[in-house]
Write a structure and sequence with these properties.
Blueprint lengths: L2 E8 L3 H8 L9 H17 L3 E6 L14 E4 L3 E2 L14 E2 L2 H13 L5 E3 L6 H11 L8 E7 L9 H16 L6 E7 L16 H13 L1 H5 L3 H8 L7 H8 L5 E12 L2 E10 L2
Parallel strand pairs: 1-8, 2-7, 2-8, 3-6
Antiparallel strand pairs: 1-10, 3-7, 4-5, 9-10
Helix pairs in contact: 1-4, 3-5, 5-9
């Protein structure tokens, strides 16, 4: 059977993608951040998952306020980088895994999660920046990609608990797939940040570090945290952290922390990265 080998939680800050695309990793502003993530890249090069399920939020590239799916899964054979207003990022298109993606869709829907199925889905920085964080600038992504979009743009967003339970259902689905694929699952977005209003630029390091601790050792408690606390403590865009709970739900109750880093600021955000493996 296929198996989920690890979960990766990472911010998807667009400025990080721009720094990678423009060769700025060694500049004084960026070097401290990229030095912190190098162990994660080394781990990824050794782990070499066959498929990455990337849980992210679209930023009005594939969807708009005209159509807002709570959860949407991409089942195509190829996903091109989206044009976010200044041309697509200069990164490779992502090869999909339609067979596994359709298996996930069928399993999750019959498991009572109502997914939107996307046969065409341009992927924006929410999906491509996490790949760049872990893989750098390859000529082709060294794994196949299944994008899974979560609405954290328009209220009401799904709860952390719902996302956590979705992760559990994803694990059940992967483990019933008749293949030998080794799957990594990304939870992306966050950490604390706010892009507008009187609290623009908000960063709450204490909240972010406590979130990482609970993600490892007490995800059930973290899954019960409501929308209001995320908005109050982590800013209007901090709600993106519920997507990390999809990743955590897809892992076993006990995990081993392989890598953790936290950096402030990248652009005007708090930037986190964590890699978790299922405990033996």
């Amino acid at each position: 059977m296929a198996e989920i080998i690890a979960g990766i939680g990472t911010s998807h800050v667009p400025a990080v993608g721009a720094a990678i695309d423009n060769g700025k990793q060694d500049e004084p502003y960026w070097a401290p951040y990229f030095n912190k993530i190098q162990p994660a890249r080394d781990w990824m090069a050794e782990a070499r998952p066959d498929v990455c399920i990337v849980v992210y939020n679209d930023h009005a590239s594939a969807f708009s306020l005209d159509l807002i799916p709570t959860f949407a899964i991409g089942v195509a054979a190829r996903f091109d980088p989206a044009d976010e207003g200044y041309g697509p990022r200069g990164v490779p298109a992502a090869d999909g895994h339609p067979q596994l993606a359709w298996h996930l869709a069928e399993s999750l829907i019959t498991d009572e999660f109502d997914l939107t199925i996307a046969n065409k889905l341009p992927i924006d920085h929410g999906c491509t920046v996490p790949l760049s964080v872990l893989y750098g600038r390859p000529d082709a992504w060294p794994c196949r990609i299944i994008p899974l979009c979560v609405n954290v743009i328009q209220y009401p967003a799904p709860t952390g608990h719902r996302c956590f339970e979705l992760g559990k259902a994803i694990r059940r689905a992967v483990e019933t797939y008749p293949g030998d694929e080794r799957v990594a699952i990304f939870g992306t977005g966050g950490m604390s940040h706010q892009l507008q209003g009187e609290r623009a630029g908000l960063i709450n390091t204490d909240f972010d570090l406590a979130f990482l601790d609970r993600l490892v050792s007490d995800p059930e408690t973290q899954a019960r945290v409501g929308h209001t606390e995320y908005l109050r403590e982590a800013g209007s865009e901090g709600i993106e952290l519920v997507m990390w709970l999809v990743m955590r739900g897809a892992l076993s109750p006990r995990v081993t922390e392989v890598h953790r880093s936290h950096h402030v600021p990248t652009s005007n955000t708090s930037n986190g990265l964590i890699i978790l493996e299922n405990a033996a």
